[in-house]
Amino acid sequence: MLSTMQDVPLLISRILTHGSTIHGTSQVTTWTGEAEPHRRSFAEVGARAAQLAHALRDDLGVAADERVATLMWNNAEHVEAYFAIPSMGAVLHTLNLRLPAEQLAWIVNHAADRVVIANGSLLPLLVPLLPHLKTVKHVVVSGPGDRSGLADADVQVHEYEDLITGKPITYDWPELDERQAAAMCYTSGTTGDPKGVVYSHRSVYLHSMQVNMTQSMGLTDQDTSLIVVPQFHVNAWGLPHATFMTGVNMLMPDRFLQPAPLAEMIEGEKPTHAAAVPTIWQGLLAELTAKPRDVSTLGQVTIGGSACPPSLMQAFDKLGMRVCHAWGMTETSPLGTVARPPAHAVGTEEEFGYRLTQGRFPTSVEARLTGPGGERLPWDGESAGELEVRGPWIAGAYYNGPDSEPLRPADKFSEDGWLKTGDVGIISPDGFLTLTDRAKDVIKSGGEWISSVELENALMSHPDVAEAAVVAVPDDKWGERPLATVVLREGASTDFEALRTFLAEEGKIAKWQLPERWTVITAVPKTSVGKFDKKVLRRQYAEGGLDVTQL
Amino acid sequence: MLSTMQDVPLLISRILTHGSTIHGTSQVTTWTGEAEPHRRSFAEVGARAAQLAHALRDDLGVAADERVATLMWNNAEHVEAYFAIPSMGAVLHTLNLRLPAEQLAWIVNHAADRVVIANGSLLPLLVPLLPHLKTVKHVVVSGPGDRSGLADADVQVHEYEDLITGKPITYDWPELDERQAAAMCYTSGTTGDPKGVVYSHRSVYLHSMQVNMTQSMGLTDQDTSLIVVPQFHVNAWGLPHATFMTGVNMLMPDRFLQPAPLAEMIEGEKPTHAAAVPTIWQGLLAELTAKPRDVSTLGQVTIGGSACPPSLMQAFDKLGMRVCHAWGMTETSPLGTVARPPAHAVGTEEEFGYRLTQGRFPTSVEARLTGPGGERLPWDGESAGELEVRGPWIAGAYYNGPDSEPLRPADKFSEDGWLKTGDVGIISPDGFLTLTDRAKDVIKSGGEWISSVELENALMSHPDVAEAAVVAVPDDKWGERPLATVVLREGASTDFEALRTFLAEEGKIAKWQLPERWTVITAVPKTSVGKFDKKVLRRQYAEGGLDVTQL
Q1: In this predicted structure, what is the pLDDT of residue B305?
Q2: Would residue B542 count as lying in a domain?
Q3: What's the CATH code of the domain at B236?
Q4: AMP-dependent synthetase/ligase domain spans which residues (chains A, B) (predicted)?
Q5: What is the pTM of this model?
Q6: How far apart are CA A428 and CA A358, in angstroms?
Q7: Are B370 and B489 in a shared domain?
Q8: Which residue, B109, B63, B72, B67, is CA-closest to B91?
Q9: Is B449 a catalytic residue?
Q10: Which end of chain A has fewer CB atoms within 10 angstroms, the N or the C?
Q11: Quick check: B198 and A2 CB within 8 A?
């Protein structure tokens, strides 16, 4: 029996129309580095998005679901692209300007982007790429920056403002299938080619509703959100779409992501909310310590991307900025969990512990834990397993180019279609997730999992240890066992037995998890973004390059 | 180009599973009239919903999308039925216990209900109906009440608790199409047969998300919601579903809807939110005035169903209960608008004016105004037209029985599928709706509309006028013109010229809208629910039964 409800698709054009009419006076404020930031109302953004869509279709010939890429900072024009491109039926492809040049070129070619809209300040990055881009016919430039590098390029070059000027300020947005592609984002995996995640109108719409629910960010039109998380990074956590649903004002830092201008924009524009990764907040905290400013309006800070250190959370609490942890990934749109403590913990000693977890799953994200043998593990706050998730804004495949079938690698998707997150963690009976390790780093010992991160944190709390990395090494009896690689502080002497005892006593590590294999190294190898590069250590061990003591 | 997102349907079973695990400790508290109310956790509700589904399928043979009706107050068992019936794939049909018996029987037969779950206290209403119910095979009785009337009934009778006891507390909920019917509700139209609105899993799910958005009720698991609006009245405005998404505690009054027990449950259980129609609040206010109680926890009160008089809103403000207006109807699930003032008005003199409007449309509800000649009218805060709406939780048809096509009467649905609400109003440029009349009561004069309600309110503000009703009567020149029918206060004398002058001067009615036809009546005829019955006045005029003075 079918319902008698109207069959109305969930489309991004609806969010745009709503935001630019009912919340037409809300503002997108873009930092310019000058005395006055640039201000544009949602109504103006809506009108200009319509103009951009006309220009893309009529002047640049963008048709059907062709891809239009952006190489842009967070600013009003990027918001216009966010809405114009999917609303007209094309696909927004946000390019991560932090990626190595050859990866960027690979991604643009893989997505077959027809147009790139770029900020003038990013042309030094784009120009050297252009000879390698096979499908790009047009470059549209917006904002300040030297254009001279484009003179010899084999593409048509347009000025953003010239392109849209005089175009009609409304557009008859097509009634699309809500499952059609709206936007795409590539994950920068450490191994293999980057993988494309393609969001649908449906997934973006539902995700935006979730962001506005009280369990998530829960902002209103009385709020201003400082969106530091880049628009090229998982849709800026869905904030540009979500704010258009509720009229939340956006404060956009453009290229001014350094601590000093961030502190300045908080003091000057008085945002009530901000969203960024922990590194940004570390820098901001140092800046505010060195040069105090009035940041009292900023009551809520969403932190994701990686776990927020407890000390940072406490430091922000003291400044009146309440940190709220969230977890997600490119494949999860990204809202997977948000750490709002449950009612019974609010105001009690338990509260801080809840805030340190990754958070609780919303209704639309189903979660399960899979153990080392593929078995389902209970939500008992103790059993660690790989987190798998399912839901309408969770990826079920990767994009494999315009003419190929979607990719469903078995290490990323279960047979029944769930996303394997690659994260290992525990879930409490009331649904709070705590991540303990990456699946590739966890030590699989006798059918149980040992968290490398837990051992590392315990080791690094010892006064003699400067850094420590723990990796899995093959073991005849147990399958795998942990190898502890330790960087000692200057003047400290090697006493593995003492460290092992410390782990058991002070680190509260279970006896069966204690490493037998130990080695001292001069520094932990790091990736380009500063994470421990455990691949290198595992290879050194395999090749016999480490001097290992067996206890 | 299709997205790579998972294709996960939006199902009520997901809301149930989420609420009964992640929010398992939240509570449904049901008033019993005794010292202690009855308390049941969401986890228990979830387990019992699974048991009910097993019983309905295995013991009562409910299959596929058969209809299971409820004739129940707001209580924990009704919440169990709300989740069990749609989650198993059947259709929940909530029966409005305020309807006349013959209408109820007609509705049950039209929906072809197979089972009725009834509260024991409502058997006096159900028992006389049973001989007229053609499809009902089973009656399930829950809660106190004399069962003896069922002894001779030609149906199988079951005790709710006996039926579910011992059944498994989990159920493998089927993966349904999200557009499948989940629940149905009949509108009690004043003319013609009642019309069935059939909600889908998709519409209920999206509506629940909206209720939890900050623009709407925006509650959290720290809240307790006193749900006075009946579960048989448009799904209790979506609250039972929405609370399971966020862990909001429910306080259910069962049959104790009188002012005294309501005041008692507010004082005793300290809800932070309540939802009801204005009449309930009028009664509660009188009760609190006569016998003050501590109602200080109740910060937010959602009022819908009909407009809240300004005086009532102000009186509640003084008690610390902030009234929030909402507008909707059975056909809109019901959330159509919510009157949260825009940021710029908060704390200003404008704020109260915004709160008196019907409110602002959420992203998923598109609205347009259609004028007397079918033309689209602007959102200028002045042009009055019939409100038409479109969206994923808005009806596009009526149910026409198990074997017939859906009904799309032209006076209820536009050719392009929008719902004609039958309400006439204006919309401000920032999307706030103010309803001025019902379409059937508006006076269509020379291609413009005159609001009967506006004229009545202005007339009733004159000291000599006790009551006044204004109806459209045929006019050769203008098509229709207003007829003012006035009930004078005791001792007042008839002076229509003075009233007309008063309308123009004090009532600020435009000259062309002033009535020429006047009559004095002894009382305005009323419908069974106390509304002005203008049909009677129109008929009396047509039959020459009124003594009309022409000015």
Answers
A1: 78
A2: yes
A3: 3.40.50.12780
A4: 36-399
A5: 0.94
A6: 11
A7: no
A8: B67
A9: yes
A10: C
A11: yes
